[in-house]
Amino acid sequence: MKFFSKSVFIAILAALDISPVGAAQNSCLASSVISCTNAIKTTKTRTLSLTSWCSSVLGCVKSTVTISGDPTTITTTKTVWETYTESVIVSEEWTTTTFDYTETTYTAVATETLTPTYTVERFVITTVKPRARRWEEAVHAKDLLKREKTTSICPSAIEKQACSCIITSCDPPVTQDDRKTIKKGTVETFYSLLEIPITYTNTEWEPIYTTETESYTETVKSGVLSTHTTTIKCTPSSTNSFFYLQATDAPPVNGQYWWVAPTNPRLLSFSIEAAFTPDILAATVFSLDSEKRLITRHKNGTMYANVDHYSGFTLVHHMDRREIQRRSYEFLRCEIKPASGRYPGGYGELYCLADGFFNREVWNYCPIYLEWFNSPLVIGSHWSDRAPECSPIMFLVKPVCGDS
Description:
Helix 3 packs across helix 6 and helix 4 crosses helix 6. Among the domains are: about 70 residues, no CATH class; about 160 residues, Trefoil (Trefoil (Acidic Fibroblast Growth Factor, subunit A)). Helix content is about 15%, strand content about 45%. It has about 400 residues and is of the alpha+beta class.
């Protein structure tokens, strides 16, 4: 019978992938294990990569321990005291008040015809044929490299021992608490009544009638509309920042496109107002400049979307920069946010904010302003569901180049 030395015995067990308990205590100091440890750390330089790789070598398995049980209910109670008043009539009296009422009859004595000329832009889209890129014509140099994935750094038994020296144990199971906490809130309201005695006065109105006749000159506006053509060039493989704005949510113009056109315009020589068209070929092409101002090209120069500075709910105009600065009006600065998922097509959505004191960022479509000013588009600090009655409106950004 042959006898082996201790070192030879440990080497035989290591070759057989056996780690004796007695040998495990000093195995991290063995030269072969130290050499393998250094090789692993040199190859796996990131802590996360090193830990993940050694966990795989040691056969670590990620597991989850789930805690379950009955839900816990937390109830909070809020007490509210409310006082309301009620008027109680203790006496009653009558009073008579007269007022002037004038009926006016209008008679046309002449007719005046206005024939202003207005110019609208028509945008023609052209696409440049793309050129073949060099990397499509020849195999890229990186494609010639064949990288072998390293699955083992040291012999299996020594590799496992080295990893057990690098990470002392596998990660413990992850604890996941599936128990639910239910929060309930209740409000207790107590009321008290306060009676206020009043004297009620009944008023009887008596008109004093007057009749008068006024003559006027009837004015007929018969505008002449001319067209100016602007060409938009689409270049493949380059950034094309031109887009149409399609309205949605507002029932009167849902699905229509923003058209900067003075159709039936207000007689404001300094401003072009907003209209809408169902024809995308007639729609206005917009873009954002380097300062994120909403602009469009026009025969008379670049037109900027803007609002006046008098209130937090104001009409949207289009003017040139000089006129805006002269009147101290405020630019609309906009950004295109990713699709929210509320609308089909996956188009981006336009969000704008007006310069100045008021936080105006909510688009409104107001039919009453279309009737009064031929300018139905308003941006305000809120959505008006009262007077004037308006519809909230969202603009979808449809690229001019590519999928439009």
